[in-house]
Model the fold of this input.
Amino acid sequence: MSAQLDPAYRTRAIDALGDTEIDVLVIGGGVTGAGAALDAASRGLSVTLVEARDFAAGTSSRSSKLIHGGLRYLEQLDFALVREALKERGLLLNKLAPHLVHPVPFLFPLQHRVWERAYIGAGVALYDTLGGARAVPMHRHLTRTGALELAPALKDDAMTGAIKYYDAQVDDARHTMTLARTAAQHGATVLTRTKVTGLLRDGEQVVGAKVMDLETGLEHTIRARTVISATGVWTDDMIKMTGVEFPFHVRMSKGVHIMVPRERLNMNTGLIMRTEKSVLFVIPWAEHWIIGTTDTDWSLDKNHPTASAADVQYILDHINSLLREPLTRADIVGTYAGLRPLMTGANKETSKLSREHAVAEPAPGLFVIAGGKYTTYRVMAADVVDAAAARLGSDAPSSVTADLPLLGAVGYQDMLGDIEDVAARAELPVETVRHLLGRYGSLTESVFDLIAAVPELREPIPGAEDYLAAEAVYAATHEGALHLDDVLTRRTRISIEVPDRGLKAAPEIARLIAPHLGWDDDRTNAEINQYYDRVHAELAANEANDDEAANAARLLAVS
Done:
């Protein structure tokens, strides 16, 4: 089946809605929903996925970009969760998505001389053991001198020594989108900007949903033998829609991150430090550092959680306690905020609520998956599809996704190993090809094809020179981008990687994608203006003192 998610694909898919009853309707295009669509389709079930906004538009594009076991969960003695997450980390690194998931080193500064090294060292050793020796390099103990050689940006008195260990990172939005494309390759229909407006019932049984195509305003009916809700922080909205009580609820915890230029911190490793609530990461991200996160309750707009001035100051205060040269607001080139979907627990502190997941069938034929963490999306998806398959009573096989590489994985290592010849054939610099391989894997050949057909697409995008013009076009012709914001925010990360948040790049990207999306001049200008409004609203929100004021400022923009 086609994994080229261009406008023609969407038109055919929309037109075919309701033609036949399908096995599984998945509601939600985040990492769990996309994972469920792939899991079900790869078992031979007929599947449609609908997402009201864009793939990963919510939580799944706003994480810490880490694939990790959760070192801090060892302190909570949650060994099963850590073991499960580290197993998934190994699968992603070695088999499923080696082009998208890469090892990253971290330094854990020690503050006390004897007991802490023994205590933390034992935990990290267990972490390595649970994760398997082949996934990432083993940890190392460092003296203070050795740690400062790796991270000269830290104060001499910031630590008595350190432990260096490894986890992994991912571009979460690209990974989620690639999951959806892989599901499409296996026969699933995947649709964005398609909002569920109601559930279909046959007595007590849920037998599908009514959806609205937000691009046209037209309503469609999807009949399905089972429905899976993978709606994350919107789970309680699904509770209201069904009119029945669920066995669990979801609370929202806001996590904020800032981005600063790579040269601003003289370090050759990431960093993890304790805070009074949780932990703070400094994560290498191409030419930047991602620093975060916060962990605070959120009860305001789910679509556009915002970083307030207080959130930003919290992060700066904590990281500056370790730095020789403090960071200031002027160093920040981007911020983003996301919401963690935490299952309600007895303890009101969001950092203590469960990161494990649960599956329920609150109404016959309706299955809900909630909780969990990004790293364990595949296990969550398999669990909820297992439940749906049991109701179907079909002979569908067990989950096969542990052995199913995502699009771009097969052939990636060969291209990377032969990168100089690949670059020569494409007539591009080696570093440019390395950048492309880390985003598309072996699908980079399709980007080369665009450049071969239109040579001007080999040029960098003005205002976002780390990206080629071909990447913007590819987002519209292959990756399902329907709006300018989709390209600037999720297919690329320009919106948080350049100081002007993509304002200069936006008109050029709009010009590049307009003919592929059928936009006239009025539509093109409207997309540009809408993106400008969004950026200015987010910048205003970042200056607001608290969540309520930040939320109000952000809501002044439409998208």
In short: The two ends are 32 Å apart (CA to CA). Residues 288 and 512 are 26 Å apart (CA to CA). The first strand starts at residue 22 and ends at 27.
